[in-house]
Amino acid sequence: MSTGTGTLPAEGVRTMFDRIAPVYDAMNHVMTVGLDRRWRRVAAEAVVSPGDRVLDACCGTGDLTLACARAGGRVTGLDFSERMLERARAKSSAIEWVQGDALALPFEDGSFDAATVGFGVRNLEDLAGGLAELRRVLRPGGRLGVLEITQPRGALAPFFRLWFERGVPLMGRVVSGSSAYTYLPASVRRFPGPDELASLIREAGFGEVRYRLFARGIVALHLGVAE
Q: What gap in Å lies between CA 185 and CA 160, rounded to an integer?
């Protein structure tokens, strides 16, 4: 498998994110014109109540984890990449940072009141399995928030494709010195649309599933409640 196909084995995902960890935050902010900060804040506030035990899975460098903490949660951030976690730990020593696999979460059933994933579920080899794991570690009534890039429809679609197909890989090569960011547009192309992802979340054991679109449909925030 290669980055150009949008599908990588688990070890390939880990290696890729270890490599791009030093530029990950900068690339996110540039690609979204800084809007990613607001999207993370909205996601955290939608699912986290003060005092909640919160899991931020696929936490990367920890920006959504920190947003969950600011919303009042007692948060654990989990990621596959140790290099990403090094940067997360530098942002806060008050949060528990755990290296682990989102497909085999190292937590007991019902350990959390809320769970979030920001721009991470598209990297899972088994999306349905990852959603099922999130349901397992949530108590009944626990809340899930999944923030993810999607493909807009209508007039914006051609500009989105031009930016993600050409602009993002080129910028990634300049900033990171590697071809890792060719993976992003390919992974978005193969990822389920908002309605299909909502169905997968329901099938994983969540009710009250709904989603909200940002930036004219470029990003979707899916919400659900563990049944």
A: 10
Return the CATH class of domain 3-226: alpha beta
Distance CA 215, CA 51 (A): 31
Q: What is the mean pLDDT of each run of 10 residues along the chain (227 residues)?
A: 50 77 82 89 98 97 98 97 96 96 97 97 93 98 95 71 69 63 71 93 98 89 98
Alpha-carbon dihedral 92, 48, 78, 91, rounded to 10 degrees:
-10
62: left (phi over 0), alpha (psi -120 to 50) or beta: left
Check: pTM over 0.85? Answer yes or no. Answer: yes
The H-or-E segment that residue 195 falls in is helix 194-203
3-state secondary structure of 65: helix
d(CA 197, CA 120): 13
Give the Cβ contact number of residue 71 at 10 Å.
21
The domain spans of the chain are 3-226
Catalogue the E-assigned strands of 111-185.
112-118, 138-149
Angstrom distance (rounded) from CA 13 to CA 31: 20
The CA distance from 134 to 128, in Å, is 10
Q: What's the token pair of residue 163? A: 């930016």
- The CA distance from 172 to 162, in Å, is 15
